[in-house]
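Entry 14. Ran structure prediction on the chain below.
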Amino acid sequence: MTQPIPEAREPVPDGVRAQILATEHWGLLAVRSQTWSEVMGRITAQLMFTSASLLFLALLGQSIGYTETFRSLAVALGLTLLLTGTLTAFRVHNASQEDYLFVKGMNRLRAGYLDIDPTLEPYFITGLTDDEVGIGQTYTMGPTRNVSHVAASSGVFIVAVNTIVAAGVTAFVLWSMGPWVASIGAAVLGAAHFAFWIYLAWRNWQVNLTPGWVRFPTGRTPGRLS
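Output, structure tokens:
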């Protein structure tokens, strides 16, 4: 029995290709915007909660003094802040992971635009490849990514806030053992807390750089879509 010969399909016009790519591009932009809007709301709520807690402790200290009751309430409130702060840090951490993939997807779409018309390349300021070089280009708009970009990120910011809270709770817990013990314990635990979260972020960044995920590497020559 002879197999039917598939009908030859006409090439898709460039205008249709561009429209499909642009639709996906706008979809990624919308989801990325919604993600960071939600994350910024979470960070704002956590900072408001932290500020209100510090104000409460300040007023409580003035009314009852720095007694054992005050220390117990400070530890309980600090642990609550650390719990909500840790959940917020996980959300920021996951959003950063998602954001990397959003950027990777949009860089791939720009590579598709260039496959349709390679002469567009000089007009793009964002990255045109989905490897580390191209994604870094999109994040920084050209300049080389340095430590200031990482230090000023939302992830490092919320981790720093949580580290201060963790160190403060430790100091209150160890305060009965003397100020030096409390200070050293707070410093050690705070440093360990910060180092753990930085290591977690670094490990996930290495996962992002998996070579198998790169489809449009730097140095690729744009050409017509087949």
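The radius of gyration is 25 Å. Will compare against last week's run tomorrow.
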